[in-house]
């Protein structure tokens, strides 16, 4: 087995929504902290399982915050210029 295969992230909860909540320090997509994300591939299966078990409790408040954040976000619409006559 090569070193690359040993470091391959197994069972990553990543949802490709990489945006961190400033208050809790958890990712809005997967619920992990920056350290948990950065060192995921280096953690043992037991450590990963322990983190995965915590995510169930972390995600509901993050989903609420993300929904609130999206409703406050200003939508930028392109203004179309009227053709000059």
Give the helices and strands, then pairings:
Layout: H1 3-6, H2 34-38, H3 45-72
Task: Describe the structure concisely.
The protein is mainly α and 85 residues long. It is built from 3 helices and no strands.
Quickly give the structural class. mainly alpha
- If helices are DSSP runs of H or I spanning 4 or more residues, what is the number of helices? 3
List unreliable stretches of 5+ residues: none
Kindly state the percentage of residues in helix.
Answer: 40-55%
Word description of this protein:
This protein is mostly helical. The protein has a domain at 33-64. It contains three helices and no strands. It has helices at 3-6, 34-38, 45-72. The model has no long low-confidence stretch (mean pLDDT 83).
What key attributes describe this structure?
85 residues; mainly alpha; 3 helices
């Amino acid at each position: 087995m090569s070193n690359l295969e040993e470091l391959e992230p197994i069972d990553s909860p990543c949802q490709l929504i990489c945006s961190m909540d400033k208050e809790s320090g958890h990712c809005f997509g997967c619920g992990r902290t920056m350290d948990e994300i950065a060192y995921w591939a280096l953690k043992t299966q037991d450590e990963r399982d322990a983190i995965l078990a915590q995510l169930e409790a972390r995600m509901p408040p993050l989903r609420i915050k993300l929904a609130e954040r999206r409703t406050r976000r200003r939508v930028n619409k392109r203004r179309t210029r009227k053709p000059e006559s």
